[in-house]
Recover the amino acids of this structure.
């Protein structure tokens, strides 16, 4: 009762009395371990769990407790040893089977992971749907690892992964690439179209655009029209179509495609608009304005797992070691800003845990010219710095917004400070008009 109420002092006292009166009673050992955990005494908890190993009826309980304590302290070899011992004694033990799968995945031991999945399925530790999905993830990870040296094996593995999980993006992209290499672009197209219908992703769009090696920009644009029909209103389709349209110099189409997403653009949409302005009109000023907006724009989806943001798909989360943890989603800044760890204590986990290094997503870097513009703008005193027109008008503030002077285009190499044109500063009459509107 004291343990359940959170009373660490009373729990420790009564657990000690119980163990003194019944030293061989399994429940007394469990209460001693739980009271030690409640009071933060990890050494005491570990001693109680080790005492449980001596009795057959409490051995599995002791192994589980020691495994939990080893994971908490970052002792990967110890956790692996306890999980393996429990799995050998009781193959149907759920936590031991899951731990074995996690450790094999963290070590990139994909044959071992496949064997563990088979054993977990035989012992009914997972459903058939879970087995198919996780097997597809393991096969994809193994195919990616063998893609450079053993192409035939990688091709067979990726093809099996696609059959098990058609919506798994890295499997579909890898299988399609292998099919293109073997002269089967139509099969590759069907695989990518099925994956796109379930999960639109820029990697799928890139692979689909280059199904035919050496295709012209207009051929890639026509292919993009075919792909995006499955998801006509999806932003990934718009971005992919706009990318192909810019490459084909179909600027009107690119601008119309991006128009629904420019009121509150994401970073990628803003960067495409910057490229469009510079390519179509050679308007460096507008391009810089869009680049500046990209720095503060909403984040695009990324491969995210347990608070980490990765540039590429990974089969295992480096935080929890879960298989198939990464999903394509907008990172939640409130939980883990800029891809930070959710649990700061896990930041010091030893390399033995098998956590791969991740590239945390960062905002797109501005061009050198845009950075120079920003530095020069920061040097202008606030009283004379030209104001920028806001991207969207605040509610009820349309008239005030119209009184703000647009951004003045600054050359790449300003040299000596030129005489500022009359339109670059706000006149006294302009300020008077501004405050009249404000009032």
């Amino acid at each position: 009762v004291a343990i359940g109420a959170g009373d660490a002092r009373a729990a420790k006292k009564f657990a000690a009395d119980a163990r003194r009166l019944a030293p061989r009673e399994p429940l007394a050992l469990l209460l001693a371990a739980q009271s030690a955990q409640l009071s933060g005494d990890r050494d005491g908890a570990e001693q109680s769990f080790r005492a449980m190993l001596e009795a057959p009826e409490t051995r599995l309980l002791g192994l589980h407790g020691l495994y939990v304590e080893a994971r908490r302290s970052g002792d990967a070899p110890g956790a692996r040893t306890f999980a393996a011992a429990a799995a050998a004694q009781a193959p149907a033990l759920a936590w031991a089977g899951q731990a074995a799968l996690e450790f094999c995945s963290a070590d990139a031991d994909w044959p071992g992971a496949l064997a563990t999945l088979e054993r977990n399925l035989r012992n009914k530790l997972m459903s058939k749907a879970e087995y198919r999905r996780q097997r597809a993830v393991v096969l994809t990870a193994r195919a990616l690892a063998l893609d450079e040296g053993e192409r035939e094996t990688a091709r067979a593995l990726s093809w099996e992964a696609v059959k098990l999980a058609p919506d798994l993006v890295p499997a579909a992209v890898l299988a399609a690439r292998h099919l293109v290499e073997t002269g089967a672009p139509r099969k590759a197209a069907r695989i990518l179209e099925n994956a796109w219908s379930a999960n639109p992703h820029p990697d799928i769009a890139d692979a689909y655009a280059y199904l035919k090696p050496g295709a012209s920009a207009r051929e890639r644009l026509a292919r993009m029209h075919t792909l995006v029909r499955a998801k006509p209103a999806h932003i990934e389709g718009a971005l992919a179509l706009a990318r192909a349209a810019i490459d084909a110099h179909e600027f009107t189409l690119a601008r119309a495609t991006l128009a629904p997403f420019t009121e509150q653009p994401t970073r990628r949409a803003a960067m495409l608009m910057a490229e469009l302005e510079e390519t179509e009109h050679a308007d460096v000023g507008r391009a810089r304005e869009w680049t500046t907006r990209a720095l503060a724009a909403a984040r695009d989806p990324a491969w995210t797992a347990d608070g980490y943001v990765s540039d590429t798909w990974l089969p295992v989360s480096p935080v929890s070691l879960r298989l198939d943890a990464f999903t394509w989603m907008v990172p939640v800044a409130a939980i883990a800003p800029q891809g930070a760890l959710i649990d700061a204590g896990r930041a010091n986990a030893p390399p033995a845990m098998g956590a791969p290094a991740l590239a945390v997503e960062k905002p797109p870097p501005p061009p050198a010219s845009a950075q120079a513009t920003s530095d020069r703008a920061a040097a202008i005193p606030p009283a004379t710095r030209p104001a920028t027109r806001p991207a969207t008008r605040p509610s009820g503030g349309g008239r005030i917004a119209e009184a703000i002077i647009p951004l003045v285009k600054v050359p790449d190499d300003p040299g000596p400070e030129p005489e500022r044109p009359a339109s670059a500063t706000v006149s006294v009459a302009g300020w008077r008009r501004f405050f009249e509107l404000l009032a």
In short: The longest helix spans residues 128-146.
